[in-house]
Amino acid sequence: MKVLKIIVSITIPFFLIILFASILTTTPYLIFSKGLYESHSRIEFDHDYAAERIMGYLNYRYEDLNFGTDEFDDSILLRDEEIVHMEDVLKVYTGLRIAAFSSLIIGVSLSFLIYKRNKEELYKTFKHMYIGPALFVLFLGGYILIDFNAAFTAFHNIFFPQGGWTLGYNDALIQLLPTPFWMVSGIIILVLFSLSMALIYVLNEKVLKKKLLN
Length: 214
Hints:
By secondary structure, this protein is mostly helical. It has helices spanning 2-23, 27-32, 47-58, 80-117, 119-127, 131-146, 148-159, 172-176, 179-213.
């Protein structure tokens, strides 16, 4: 039972943080951020069109990144280095999404199994589930606030050990998705993740605990 509880405490939070990360890599979110960062003032291509093509690629709507400055331009906006990096990003995103979906299935299935065996044990599992995520949020959130550049570099070194993710100041990807964009996005992900864990805690106390008392 203890092993099952540990697995549930890992898989469900993992699914949630990848879910929120995926939501923030969508076209509406990117368009919503339009004009919020200094680099956006330097953009000479169609911001909304580029955002839709790039996020469409990451969400499997397009098979390549061969697009121009707008829908009528036949040239290719992104440099080869930018395209290669986005191809690497897609591979990482795909792997994380598969892992997250698998985690959801495992977490929900094991939660149901624990519930059938012992409702009190499931209650205890969800009651203490926030501890690991809370430590994770405090560590990563503190890292981001204290030295985001170091955190950003460490993240890329972990997920892109082959290198090739350092792009130029005037590259379209950097203009569209500058460093401050990722810092704000990281904070939003952690906030949404924290709120989701708090919601699980409250529902556990309001619903499952009530069943136990009855």
